[in-house]
């Protein structure tokens, strides 16, 4: 403990059951005078509720040697031993060693007083040395976290009901930052923002604790993103590939299929040794329950953790939820595992932070958001990384979701997060309502990792798909007012319409790597030109089923070595052409 700045006179308060004698009182005065460098005025009060011992308050600090204080020291000592050495059946030896080796220390705790409380926010005075992000403990048992530091008072957010806290209540520093329990036991579970199970299942035994806020890995600790994380969605894996360790934003208006893309990406990780964490921020509890049931029904919940902070919960819980999910993901990443984390969605997270900041009386800026709202999301998303081999080679891939208003990507929060992430998948309302699912806008979507996160087979099969679609969309706009089109233009439009139909996928039906390669090879060779638009999806599904049943060795080869040789390409085209010829009547060949 560093010495305090000298003051002229210090007022100290001693609560005790039995008054000290003259010698004890003199020792206390000498201790305080040496510690604080001031003349001491000591007031002594009798308090039978202490049961034994005393409680000495001075300079904003409390030395608690009452029965309760000594018990608390012993409890903390045992907890520390349990974290480092408790195994099944060893609780009795642990308690014995704790009792034998326990030493009562003259430690102080800094105590403050609540000035005001309301709406999940408490303003406290007296905590001169509190740090940003530190956990505070109120005398009723509720915990809070420091979020605002001022000259004479401290603003903190509360993790619990504030009804038992009132002006004048005591609050103590803990010296700890907020953390959540982590471990394998959380897989398959639904937890709240503090890591407590809320799915009705048994308590989870954690493997450890991680702080919810932690510096992002540095450049030396990372390696380049070079391994694909396949979503199973042809429109994304072919044109905007996502790599393990990447941050790819999913952005679009309300009800355009943003969560559906994230959910399909999670389902596609089954059997690929990728763990998934889904963070629900500000959503309806019924929506979260439905998503969990979909994961369970399709056998995906076993490798998932769902962190839920619904719209009915406090803004403070919505604020820390993505950081808690990120801490859980970091545990697995540092264990050398690959993790996919979905933040659904960060626009609601920003709104919760704005509400919290305004209650803390921070100065509002653009769109009433505080000036640090960019840092709010950058310090979250930059923790996603592909770690170097020296650190285990684990990865955390982030899919943040942001909701736009009428497609306005130039709004404050969308522009902030676009500048933080490594690309974005923009979902367009007009495409969605026209039946294009997923409704990916080719012009505004981008992956800044690109081909580095694609297999050789996908890279070769994709060809000029994105360019062809962009030309089709542009040509479609210019030709909608013209009825007299030449044959080349009509064929280009048919080709583009066929590509759009080919990219349509039903939800919960992700495609494997070999299926995507087969479809792309056939599409880029214009095989679908001979199939009417309305039957392209049926033809694609039937053709893939034919490949699976009649040519499994080709499918297995594409899946295992992930290369597309000239021989394989010709084999795919030959098989697909024969299949189309044999089923010309079924699929209405022109």
Tags for this entry?
about 600 residues, six-stranded antiparallel β-barrel
What would you say this structure looks like, in words?
The model is unreliable at 1-7 and 102-106 (pLDDT under 50). Helix 7 packs across helix 8 (346-359). The protein is elongated. It is α/β, with parallel strands linked by helices and 590 residues long. It contains 19 helices and 20 strands. The chain has helices at 22-36, 67-85, 91-101, 234-239, 258-267, 285-297, 315-334, 346-359, 373-381, 412-420, 429-433, 456-462, 465-479, 487-502, 513-524, 536-550, 552-561, 566-582, 584-587; strands at 9-16, 39-46, 54-58, 61-64, 109-118, 121-125, 134-138, 143-149, 153-158, 170-177, 179-182, 189-191, 208-211, 249-252, 274-281, 304-309, 338-344, 395-403, 423-427, 446-447. It has an eight-stranded mixed sheet with strand order 12-16-15-17-18-14-19-20, with helices on both faces. A six-stranded antiparallel β-barrel has the order 5-6-9-8-7-10.
Secondary structure elements and pairings:
Blueprint: E1 9-16, H1 22-36, E2 39-46, E3 54-58, E4 61-64, H2 67-85, H3 91-101, E5 109-118, E6 121-125, E7 134-138, E8 143-149, E9 153-158, E10 170-177, E11 179-182, E12 189-191, E13 208-211, H4 234-239, E14 249-252, H5 258-267, E15 274-281, H6 285-297, E16 304-309, H7 315-334, E17 338-344, H8 346-359, H9 373-381, E18 395-403, H10 412-420, E19 423-427, H11 429-433, E20 446-447, H12 456-462, H13 465-479, H14 487-502, H15 513-524, H16 536-550, H17 552-561, H18 566-582, H19 584-587
